[in-house]
Amino acid sequence: MEQRPGPQINAQSEAYWQSVTQHAMVLQRCERCSTFRFYPTPVCPKCWFTGFSWEQVSGEGELYSFTIVHKPVNDAFAGNAPYVIALVTLAEGPTMMMNLEDVDLEALQIGMPLKLGYLDFEGFTLPVARPV
Ligand SMILES: [Zn+2]
After folding, report:
1. How confident is the model at residue 74 (pLDDT cuts 50, 70, 90)?
2. Which of 33, 36, 71, 86 would bridge 66 by S-S if both were Cys, CB 3.0 to 4.6 A apart?
3. pLDDT at 2 over 80
């Protein structure tokens, strides 16, 4: 089995990935219009302001959309199938792609409440969503 691929961390996303490693996700929040954003970017996509702070999110969200993967394209995930890749809209606004874990595939429903969790791997951590 291949090693699971990890994130490509750069100066822009370093604070985000560090917070995920600490199981306390932070996202950029615009200092002018207060909009949270993801992925990390140098400019607010809503008002184009460059000033921002990193703020911890509540961990609450809901299922926006999903797909169930039965045949992974990367051998590193072969033992996980079937698994759920979800778009999760956080209470703070941004929609993020992540795995949805510990869920009955028959119970998946758009809009179902979810909470953030974390999965630690060797050298990195990934956010995941789980049913409330
Ligand atoms: Zn803004």
Report:
1. confident
2. 86
3. no
In a domain, 73, yes or no: yes
- Looking at per-residue confidence, does 15 or 123 come out higher? 15
Taking the centre of ligand 1 as the mean of its atom positions, its distance from the CA of residue 14, in whole angstroms, is 21
Give pTM, 2 decimals: 0.92
Residue 49 and residue 72 share a domain: no
Alpha carbons within 13 angstroms on the beta-carbon side of residue 16 total 19
**Ligand 1: distance of its center to the CA of 33 in Å?**
4
Measure Cα distances from 37 to 55, 57, 60, 77, 96 in Å: 11, 11, 15, 28, 10
Centre of ligand 1 to C-alpha 84, Å, is: 32
Centroid of ligand 1 to alpha carbon of 109 (angstroms) = 32
**Is 120 a domain residue?**
yes
